[in-house]
Amino acid sequence: MPFYLYKYKQTPHGYKDYILDRKISLGGHGPIKEVILRRFRSEKRPDWHITDNELLSYFKVSAETHAIIIDLKPNISENISLYQLRDIWAYYENEWCPLALRLETIYVDYKIENPALFKQEFCDDKIERKNAFEFLYLQDCSLQGKGKWQWGKVGSTNGALLWPEAIKYFLDQIKECLI
User: Fold this and answer.
1) How confident is the model over 54-105, as pLDDT tens digits?
2) Count of the separate structural domains present in the chain
3) Tally of CB atoms within 10 A around 13
């Protein structure tokens, strides 16, 4: 599941034209680790909220001109599944860090003959944006700055994409178990 930095401009009709800037890394020695370590040094808490603005500032760009886009299904032919990253909630626990990502739909299972060409430049004029949530984790993390902070494997049994109704159901169920 690659992450990309896209530059965008507003059209006169209120839509955005996106142009691929470059592939980026959020894990490893990237912005998630940097934000968590900086916050831990000042707040000494295990949980953090990271905004897209904070992540974009790591790459020295603004949310007014750039967006972080996830290609959720990069290896499925003739399919476009692009989501804009909006928020990350992180919870540090014993050298691993589960994350909840709030995504905004751009294209969901959009069928097209040449996805690679489409992903170079596209417009969001034919979409209805909705929230979706995904859970991932970083492993080999250390609050002393050591470790690799690498993504855990995403497969058919983890990294689920959850829509608002599903996450509400799961959260309600989990809450009941904790009472």
Assistant:
1) 999 999 999 999 999 999 999 888 999 999 999 998 888 778 888 889 999 9
2) 1
3) 7
- The strand pair at 147-151 and 131-141 is best described as antiparallel
87, 93, 88: which is closest to 40 by C-alpha?
93
Cα–Cα distance for residue pair 158/108, rounded to 1 Å: 19
158: confidence class by pLDDT, cuts 50, 70, 90:
low
Neighbours of 131 (CB within 10 A): 15
| Contact partners, residue 52, CB within 8 Å, separation at least 6 | 63, 67, 68, 84, 85, 86, 87
Domain holding 131, by residue range, is 3-178
- Which pLDDT does position 20 carry in this prediction? 98
**Per-state percent for the chain, helix, strand, coil, to nearest 5:** 25, 45, 35
Residue range 104-118: mean pLDDT, rounded: 93
Please report the sign of the dihedral spanned by the C-alpha atoms of residue 123, residue 127, residue 128, residue 133: negative
Token pair 């589960």 in the structure block, residue: 98
Q: Name every residue whose Cβ is closer than 8 Å to that of residue 124 and which is 6 or more positions away in sequence.
A: 15, 16, 18, 106
Contact status, residue 151 vs residue 159, Cβ threshold 8 Å: no
The label of the residue with tokens 């700055």 reads: 145
